[in-house]
Write a structure and sequence with these properties.
The protein is about 50% helix and about 15% strand. The protein has helices at about 1-20, 20-25, 30-80, 90-130, 195-200, 220-230, 245-250, 255-265, 270-275, 295-305, 325-340, 375-380, 385-390, and strands spanning about 150-160, 170-175, 180-185, 205-210, 215, 230, 310-315, 345, 360-365, 365-370. The structure holds adenosine-5'-triphosphate and magnesium ion (MG).
Length: about 400
């Protein structure tokens, strides 16, 4: 088990390093990282050696076991023959019978080897199955139950990450977002904005009440949430697959190329895709690293236009885009909001992104400290104005 864990740690370290290869090159920290990997390799080597020594010892025991019985059979039968109790022919027969027996004995050894290996793997499996189930995937509530409208309501929501239960990340959040409204969330880095939207999309479990369209989160299955809510995270998730399949990602129905093209056009990425070799069949590298940061964000946004969710949550989803792209996409989101009655919750550091919001919620240290339209908040002293003036970030 220890050996398996060390190997998994080593794999994890390699993946982490490959993910940060550009930073490592830029900071010329290859030697430091090399030394770190070397120390881990040495640990792994020691454990491998211990394991192989134990295995060699065990193999040796098996061999001695077989040899011991060979010698015993031959010795005993020769002794009996010398005493005239059995004939020389019987000695030969006894030895031949014994060699016939060693075949199944070896087989027994092999079965024991496999059994011990299986015990280790079974232990690993049981450790995994003992991990708590993801609460958001447990099918509570009535399957098929969906939000009755596009409203979002939070009543006295308090939240702390399970690993730090004493540190409240969200305190007493009370919020009622009517259907079809465009709500902005602003606040300093680390104040709990992303945590709040994770609570709204049932990705983290909070105290208090969260209702989507009048239905408590506990009554909505993961399937119902995925059908009605779209969350575009701070870092877009792209897979090593075609552009077409990346845009369709998460869709539970067949999607035509025409629909994907239309979604890409709305996300202002269609022209970029046409330029790629193979267009929509262009293969993305793992994590979409053969595209620019802004292109990755626009592919993630194209999914939204394909899905037309009832509740759309954007977490810095346009942060890597130029102003023109951002404005075009915002106009398309506004259009979708008018056509489908989508409720939009948008987090943005670039406050100009929130100018057209129906209301902006300003957060600080896990609490809502100000609310109002952009114009209202800009005109009163407070955190929002400080952030707009660049006094606070
Ligand atoms: N998975 C996690 N486990 C434990 N603590 C976390 C986790 N994610 C975030 N935090 C902590 O929760 C607090 C709020 O984080 P959150 O990501 O919600 O901030 P944010 O307002 O979205 O910040 P930013 O604007 O920089 O994205 C931070 O202090 C952070 O350290
Ligand atoms: Mg965040």
């Amino acid at each position: 088990m220890e050996l398996m864990d060390t190997k998994a740690d080593m794999d994890g370290a390699m993946v982490e390093l490959l993910g940060g290869i550009e930073t490592i090159r830029a900071l010329d920290s290859a030697q430091t990282e090399g030394a770190r990997i070397e120390a881990r390799s040495e640990q792994l080597r020691k454990k491998e050696m211990r394991h192989h020594r134990a295995m060699a010892f065990y193999d040796c025991l098996k061999f001695v076991n077989e040899a011991f019985f060979s010698v015993l059979v031959i010795g005993l039968s020769v002794l009996l023959a010398s005493q005239g109790a059995i004939t020389v022919g019987t000695v030969l027969t006894a030895y031949l019978c014994f060699t016939q027996l060693t075949g199944p004995l070896r087989e027994l050894h092999r079965i024991l080897d496999e059994f011990s290996e299986c015990v280790v793997l079974a232990n690993d499996y049981f450790q995994l199955s003992d991990l708590p189930l993801d609460f958001s995937c447990q099918d509570e509530g009535i399957p098929g139950q969906a939000p009755q409208d596009n409203s979002v309501t939070l009543k006295d929501v308090r939240f702390a990450y399970p690993e730090k239960p004493d540190q409240l990340i969200l305190s007493d959040i009370v919020l009622a977002i009517p259907p079809g409204k465009f709500i902005g969330i602003a606040g300093p880095s680390g104040c709990g904005k992303s945590s709040l939207i994770k609570v709204i999309d049932k990705l983290e479990e909070a105290q208090g009440e969260v209702l989507l369209g009048g239905i408590p989160l506990s009554g909505l299955t993961r399937a119902a949430l995925s059908q009605n809510v779209a969350l575009v995270p701070q870092t877009p998730f792209l897979t090593a697959d075609t552009v077409y399949r990346n845009i369709c990602y998460g869709m539970k129905r067949e999607v035509s190329l025409e629909e994907v093209r239309e979604a890409a056009r709305k996300a202002n990425i269609a022209a970029d895709i046409e330029q790629l070799e193979g267009g929509y069949q262009f293969l993305l590298a793992e994590g979409g690293t053969n595209l620019s940061g802004g292109q990755r964000q626009r592919i993630a946004l194209a999914r939204v236009f394909l899905k037309k969710p009832r509740i759309l949550i954007l977490d810095e989803a346009t942060s890597a885009l130029d102003n023109t792209s951002e404005k075009r996409i915002q106009a398309e989101i506004e259009k979708m909001k008018e056509e489908c009655g989508t409720t939009v919750i948008s987090i943005a550091h670039r406050l100009s992104t929130l100018q057209n919001c129906d209301e902006i919620i300003v957060m600080d240290k896990g609490r809502i400290v100000q609310r109002g339209t952009y114009r209202e908040l800009e005109g009163v002293p407070g955190l929002f104005r400080d952030m707009a003036l660049g006094i606070r970030k």
